[in-house]
Predict the structure.
Amino acid sequence: MNAVLPARLVPPPFDPGSVWLVGAGPGDPGLLTLHALHALTVADVVLHDALVAPEILDLANGRLIDVGKRAGKHRSPQLRINQRLIVLARQNLRVVRLKGGDPLVFGRGGEEALALAAAGIPFRIVPGISAGLGATAGAGMPLTHRTLAQSVALIPGLGAGGTPPDDAALAALARGADVLVVYMARAHAGRIAERLIAAGRPHDEAVALVTHATTPHQQVATATLATAGEAAAAIPAGAPTLLVIGPVVALRDMLAACQQTEPMRLTPPARVAGLGS
């Protein structure tokens, strides 16, 4: 028996020759799901993204393979990752594909699931707390509020090849949601803000830029749509950045002073015993 899980909680089998597409959450290892923790401790090999927190990687007992992508610069092309998952599974290994946030929210988990299904490889999708949820909660900004915001749109800040979002799509979103959450936002924050203003969002609307969400290095910068580009330019290149736009940003001033946000930490030795198969 392992003390990580309650004694009455029996994890499902992680069979050799299968792949689990696992969401690692926004950074705090305490935000992992129990399915994710189970997968990490029994997997033979873990293919992980660049932005997965080191503390979470330390929980893995199997071989780690970095297939990370940053800001549109792909160290490992997606088709090659798909094929690698298939090859490793066919070697009768337990394979985890570990992604920051949720595997199906701007994480290409859908593409990988389709590739596995086409190859006849059994797989499981383990949802994770997406950055849009974890980062805003950790920064004291509720995504919705009955009197302030009743709709939310999640937007990728980078298109294929690192291009900015489509102007027409931004114009539609500007009118369609009270709160906008832009993932991977640092590079094109200024352009995104300009297009939103042109589409009718107020130039003085509050925005927040959250970097390294839910980790000890989390930082939150507030600005307006008119100054969002300038605020983003002050963020170091490569820092994972989420842009939040809308009236809920103002709630941070009232919540942050009392909100407890310290992440879970690991004590040596970092690796934990397996949870069984």
Q: What stands out?
A: The two ends are 12 Å apart (CA to CA). Residues 109 and 232 are 28 Å apart (CA to CA). The domain at 132-255 is CATH 3.30.950.10 (Methyltransferase, Cobalt-precorrin-4 Transmethylase; Domain 2). The chain has a mean pLDDT of 91.
